[in-house]
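Dear H.,

Thanks for agreeing to be a second pair of eyes. The structure we're designing against is below in token form, covering all 121 positions.
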């Protein structure tokens, strides 16, 4: 069994980094930008999680995924202290799957490939 470790980045740091990277100065544009981010419509590799009493909130960055073995997981992490609500799990898995399914296959020269296959027949 393989586990997946995702990077959860602090919301304030993500907001500031993205706002600075996009050179957004006006309050209204910042607000619109953040609204798109928290609606998960800014980009397909960030998934926003709200703040709660036991979680500071953050953005899951699907570009920073690392696969680890179950043994590594057991050695690096304690037993979970809380659980992500099922509604969020479904949404996160949906976005994760959608992001990685868009990676697609490399571009092929199908004309060349079909000729090569036919020659081998």
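And this is the sequence the design step returned. I haven't edited it by hand at all.
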């Amino acid at each position: 069994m393989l586990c997946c470790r995702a990077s959860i980045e602090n919301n304030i740091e993500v907001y500031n980094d993205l706002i600075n990277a996009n050179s957004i100065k006006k309050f209204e544009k910042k607000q619109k930008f953040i609204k798109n981010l928290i609606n998960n419509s800014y980009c397909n590799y960030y998934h926003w999680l709200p703040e709660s009493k036991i979680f500071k909130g953050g953005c899951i960055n699907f570009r920073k995924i690392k696969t680890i073995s179950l043994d590594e997981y057991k050695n690096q992490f304690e037993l979970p202290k809380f659980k992500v609500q099922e509604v969020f799990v479904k949404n996160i898995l949906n976005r994760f799957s959608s992001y990685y399914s868009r990676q697609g296959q490399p571009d092929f020269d199908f004309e060349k490939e079909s000729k090569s296959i036919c020659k081998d027949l």
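Two observations from my side: The first helix runs from residue 11 to 21. The beta strands are 2-9, 46-49, 58-69.

Warmly,
E.
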